[in-house]
Amino acid sequence: MEIALLGGTGDIGEGLALRWARDTDHTVVVGSRDSEKATHRADDYRTLLDERGVEHDVIGVDNETATERADVVVLSVPPEYAVSTVETVSNGLTSDDVLVSPAVSMDRDGAGFHATPPEDGSVAQAVAGAAPDVPVVGAFQNLAAGALSDLDTELRTDTVVTGDDPEATALVRSLAEEIDGLRALDGGPLAVTALVESVTPLLINLAMNNEGMHDLGVRFQ
Amino acid sequence: MEIALLGGTGDIGEGLALRWARDTDHTVVVGSRDSEKATHRADDYRTLLDERGVEHDVIGVDNETATERADVVVLSVPPEYAVSTVETVSNGLTSDDVLVSPAVSMDRDGAGFHATPPEDGSVAQAVAGAAPDVPVVGAFQNLAAGALSDLDTELRTDTVVTGDDPEATALVRSLAEEIDGLRALDGGPLAVTALVESVTPLLINLAMNNEGMHDLGVRFQ
């Protein structure tokens, strides 16, 4: 299977790319608006995985090409670019693809971070509005980017997967669980994704306010 | 110290009463609108703790008397009664007391449970608006009532404590951590409590959608 990470050159995209490349046989397609940046970043990821003696299959291309190739497209871009990125790559999307929304909209004031969901209710629902013919799945919102991209960190964390297409959500849950130490839980339909997205600012507030806590994830038990 | 649980005859109030009675030397004051109901319920709790050979100090009185006696007052009532309960007991509240808000406002539709915070932003902030002279602390929102009130269940769960008065939040964190297996984290000021309250409908959705998961709590790690 080919998994594209649009915006796969930064933050959560880097960690997902490295983990999928290390832990699975899938082809990881690092996408960027700038194909040269994508190529360079894919080189970096390959070097890092080579140093660990890990077999991998990572390529870097522009977002449009990444979308055309891939079966699963992860929108690992900042939330304000989620909808515009979908619009940019829409020619490459078909109803057989799965679009994954890991972005979270939040802002910060003196009290800390707050959730600032878009009018649609959640970033995932805004993405679904922009791609009405493609199954959209919410996932990976609550993973700590730092822990994810540090392959020496053993994960023991959950991701909540939401969506309205049972096949698509099952596929994303399965891809998530192929990452060592990641457990994927069924959060229900896309309409309740706001609850998942709002865990992320909570995690940041907890990291800010509690000594010794950083790169926090969440575990439901 | 005396801890009052207003609405301590049901749900989360029962579990907190039993756990504090079992795990600490504090006086647990079970409050209810109906003093007879409070007395009976306190009897039940004492019987249950006696059967376990646990020393305890539990009494049952009406909410007003409970508030007058107690140093810490937990509003373990349904969210729609949180503000009216504060108004009822306000004569017994002083600025030396601490008011704790564990309630969560949510509703359910076909997709599952959603957070429905009041206009103030969170139940805790609505409570603070109704008791402007008393330090208000948000805590205990994400505990599973079933697990909490079953003393055979070993907790291994977190509660996020929010508030604007450092002494009051420190006191509530300390009381929370006196319950075996409960870890209290600093969530920041009261203004970010909505993030904590919205974890509760997420926990219920996860319990509904994932086989073998029930009485879920949350752990940040």
Automatic annotation (TrEMBL), chains A, B:
List residues of the Pyrroline-5-carboxylate reductase catalytic N-terminal domain. 3-104
Name one cellular component (GO) term.
plasma membrane
List the keywords (alphabetical): Oxidoreductase, Plasmid
Any one GO biological process:
NADPH regeneration
| Top-level taxonomic group | Archaea
Annotated GO molecular function terms are: coenzyme F420 binding; cupric reductase (NADH) activity; ferric-chelate reductase (NADPH) activity; NADP binding; oxidoreductase activity, acting on NAD(P)H
- NCBIfam families linked: npdG
Which PANTHER family does the record cross-reference, listed alphabetically? DUDULIN-RELATED, F420-DEPENDENT NADP REDUCTASE
Task: Supply the name of the protein.
Answer: NADPH-dependent F420 reductase
Q: Which organism is it from?
A: Halocatena salina
Lineage of source species: Archaea, Methanobacteriati, Methanobacteriota, Stenosarchaea group, Halobacteria
